[in-house]
UniProtKB/TrEMBL annotation, chains A, B:
Designated name of the protein: Transcriptional regulator
Keyword presence, Translocase: no
Pfam families in the cross-refs: GerE
One GO process term, biological-process aspect: regulation of DNA-templated transcription
Coiled coil residues, start to end: none
Length: 123, 123
DNA sequence: TGCGAAACTGGCCGGGTGGCCAGGACAAGG
DNA sequence: CCTTGTCCTGGCCACCCGGCCAGTTTCGCA
């Protein structure tokens, strides 16, 4: 395989909005050194629509709750979280409780699933 | 604000490979009707690198384990899973144990996080 | 200066969870 | 026939989790 790195970047289009996809295809079609991928072709990069699941304002989580949430997503137990944040287990449980509340979750597993779904955390 | 929908598609670049990102920025910079997003700016579409996290063969989960995993991701307790699958809580715990094992997880929360990360489940 | 929000801590307790032991049924393949 | 793998079940037990009660400090804002 010769590495013609200066030639032909292959871009795939994965956009739901047909109008936007159309305009992009038109604009990018006329660019030298760049090509749109054929259906099924292996592309070097993909253009996706702006993920719409980010915005429910935030659900207003406090900084500390975000800290706890992140560690929960790592699979950390309350004890581990307490140690890592330098606080007591009781406080961790307090924050976890608030999280379950705000995220409408029935347990910590449900909480990280919900949070990931709405883009609050990146797992 | 006039809605010049025929003007200026804003593209964000989220590519790990610096060389590729560079070339894309250069190529796209000279295209009329198209602009690269400023850091933090809301873009109408995003260009991402080919997602490499799909392939670990599967980690070979049995059908039953997938059933249990799916319900775990819903935040279901062992008791709920048992009821839904028509099996005993002991059996559920057995399958959960296998899951923790195969997914290298320390707990059920960690398990669904890992599974979601490697595309085994879609949360 | 008082008041609320956020963060933090404690104890208590019922139920859930995960690790360990043991076993059985049933199909596929040596 | 016997082994292997998957699926299923039981009991036991230490620990963790989440919900409840109570309290503290610190901060910004009215």
């Amino acid at each position: 395989m010769s590495e013609d790195k200066t030639h032909e970047i292959v871009l795939a289009l994965e956009i739901d909005d047909p109008a936007l996809a159309d305009r992009l295809a038109m604009l990018l079609g006329g660019v030298a050194g760049l090509r749109l991928a054929a259906p099924g072709e292996q592309a070097s990069a993909v253009i996706v629509g702006r993920d719409p699941r980010v915005m429910p304002d935030d659900i207003a989580l406090t900084q500390r709750e975000l800290d706890v949430l992140a560690l929960m997503a790592e699979g950390a137990s309350n004890k581990m979280i307490a140690r890592r944040l330098g606080i007591s287990v009781h406080t961790v449980k307090f924050h976890v409780g608030s999280l379950l509340d705000k995220l409408d979750a029935t347990g910590r597993t449900d909480a990280v699933a919900h949070a990931a779904r709405r883009g609050v955390i990146e797992l």
